[in-house]
Amino acid sequence: MSMQALISGAECATTSNPLSQVLKHAEGDRSIQRVRVTAGPSSSLYRLPPSSSQAPSAADLAAARQFFEQQQQQSRGPALPSFDVERLRNMNMSPGGHATPPPAAVDMAGAWQGAARPTFSPQLTPGGSHAAWASEFELHRQTASPSAQTAEPMYRPSAFMSQRQFQPYMPMQSWTPPVAVSGKGKGRMTDADFDAAFAALSTHSSAKIEEVDELTEGLQDASLQDNDYMSEFQKSWEEVKKNAANNPLSQPAAEELARWEAQFNQLNSESRLDDDLDYDKQLQEAYEQSFNQYDIHEPGVRIGEDGVPDFGAYQFEQDNKYMVEDAQSRSFLAEARDLLANNGSLTEAALLLEAAIQKGDTGKGGYEAWVLLGETRSMDEREEAAMKALAEGTRLAAEAGDPTQGLMSLAISYTNESYERASYNTLLRWLKARYPGVEVPPPSDMQSPWALHAQVQDAFLAVARGQHTSGAAVDPELQIGLGVLFYTDSQFDKAQDCFETALGANPNDYLLWNRLGSCLSNGSKPEEALGAYRQALELRPTYTRAIYNVGVACLNIGAYEEAAKHFLSALAMQETGNGGADGAGNDKSAQLWTTLQRCFTYMNRNDLAEMARKAAPVNSFRLEGFDF
Amino acid sequence: MSADLKEEGFQASEVLVAIATSFAGLSEDEKKAQIKKVNAIFELQLKNGSGKTGTWTIDLKKTGSVYKGPAKPKADVTIIMDDATFVDLASGKLDGQKAFMTGKLKAKGNIMLATKLDSVFKSAQGKAKAKL
């Protein structure tokens, strides 16, 4: 794995002082650009030979682990000039303060890293009991064999109990990015919960570590001595009282917590809404409004009660060359499967699948072809078609008694297109289908717009935790779902950990590599993102979406010409399958064009931007000197 | 146009200028896509340290613009908070959910749209977004 070549050695990984490293970037350090982060001519990035073995081998697992460890060592802040609210703020607030405060997002990550690192390990809290527990925990962790990385789940009860804020249904807002704290050099994925637990137990200024009913369970599990923990707890309670306006209790005895919870909810609800409005009426109105807004995203797209958009039936391509052929002699479905397995053109595969479906060959359970079609379209950067196909596929799968099929992909498509509520509800559907026994408590705070997200996230976390305590194998799909939930909440570091865990189990899953890449990219780690995308493309060179994402990463680090080449090659690949003509109703990936247009604008080439705006034939760009 | 947005004593106005600038820099298609994704008119009522309240509107439903004053014709959601809270939200120091829970952020109207404010800030940063 030539990760080293990819991640330049030009920058020292100044992880001990993230602020300095970030300041370097803010001052316009472009040395990253000078080094070819795409590791060679762009064409080689995705025309690499496909990997032959499909099953995760020991070598793959080791390589994946190596990738993560390298990442951990080389994690660094972003190099992006960005809309600098922090700067604005500091300019007003601290006259005479230094001139270049770091971009806000980075600062947060950097600050967390910086803060968490020194407080890692033994010296966490008052009370020797913690140290004892820590060493016990550590032993426990070390006995898990490396090949059981998959068996090592992300979250443990201890992690949870220390993370939860005073509202039980709230997700862990105060997690530190685990990456910073794994000072022992082990793979990041196995450290997540462990590190987070310790980091949070430390006296970080904004970490609110007060507990609710979880605490009592947690205490028993971890066999802590009550005295030490309670005093720490009481300290944080004092903090809470000072900060939270409506904390009615003074003495958090365990049995009163539930009562407090209810009171707190009530008080908070009263303070949040306006006094003169009738809360019930307002909530009613708000819900009605959101349901009645047909055109939340598009005029004509009806959005259901659960936020799920209804795009109507799937529109098959009009000019499908396979449709005129004699169906008897060929199994389009089998051919499509072969094509996908051998990294053929995604557009071809989609056509084959459409032909198969139209001829009635829908595969296993009547849903297989649909789900495959949806996933293919999604990979090919045609999200609306993907959503339609997956909606149909998941519906059929549920009818066929195989209800988890395709739901994860559908949820991800919704996420990409900003249909967040649909995504949460789809994930919930998946969870209930996959774990029928699991109890999902209703959202505790119905009036909060974030309630649904919190509810679903908590449900996922509960199952993940349960898997850990019972010693069951970690479910990679559960991790993926959790990752998606963190991703929609912009908690990219946590999402990253989830996807890495899932990758531990499936190192050859190119979809996962792409998803990991996007977490890294949106989490402002473009160089690492490129590494992940490269993995995805090595496994599937025709993965249009991954190519788009590579372009986006290049764009974000300022490598505009590189970015343009990638977008153009993605567009070229889309063109080849269809001869340029597009079928009825299938969006031809407007996003590729608009991002390409933006690219050209940054390059100050308005002529090219105009061509992109008009979606000129891809060849005309070759004539302009772009080699792809 | 940006000059109209500024208001003395409000740090938020700087942020709003930045948001307006980023909207102006979008191509027509990109703006349309943004409007499609958000489809909301946010009216912001921000109170600063000296007790004054300033009102601005972010229109991501019809025009894709930011202007001072209440929403015309009508806001989909009105968000009420402190000047400082707004700046924290925009810079990512505070997240919407926490703000809401602690009562720092109040919403009137279609409160579900309050979650979209996060994405407005993100897109104003001008970074292209990767896809899962």
From TrEMBL, chain A:
Lineage, top-rank taxon, reads: Eukaryota
Q: Which InterPro entries match?
A: PEX5/PEX5L (IPR024111), TPR-like_helical_dom_sf (IPR011990), TPR_rpt (IPR019734)
| Pfam families referenced in this protein's UniProt entry, alphabetically | TPR_16
What's a GO biological-process term for it? protein import into peroxisome matrix, docking
Alphabetic keyword roster: Cytoplasm, Repeat, TPR repeat
Report the subcellular localization: Cytoplasm
Q: Name one GO cellular component term.
A: peroxisomal membrane
Q: Which SMART domains match?
A: TPR
PROSITE patterns under this entry? TPR
Primary location: cytoplasm
Q: Where are this protein's TPR repeats?
A: 476-509, 510-543, 544-577
Q: Which GO terms describe its molecular function?
A: peroxisome matrix targeting signal-1 binding
SUPFAM superfamilies from the entry?
Answer: TPR-like (SSF48452)
Family statement: Belongs to the peroxisomal targeting signal receptor family.
The protein's name in its UniProt record: TPR-like protein
Automatic annotation (TrEMBL), chain B:
Superkingdom is: Eukaryota
The chain's coiled-coil residues are: none
What are its GO cellular component terms? cytosol
User: SUPFAM superfamilies per the record?
Assistant: SCP-like (SSF55718)
Q: Which Pfam families match?
A: SCP2 (PF02036)
Q: Which Gene3D superfamilies match?
A: SCP2 sterol-binding domain (3.30.1050.10)
Q: Which residues form the SCP2 domain?
A: 28-122
Which PANTHER family does the entry link to? SCP2 DOMAIN-CONTAINING PROTEIN (PTHR10094:SF28), STEROL CARRIER PROTEIN 2 SCP-2 FAMILY PROTEIN (PTHR10094)
The protein, known as:
Sterol-binding protein
Q: Which organism is it from?
A: Exidia glandulosa HHB12029
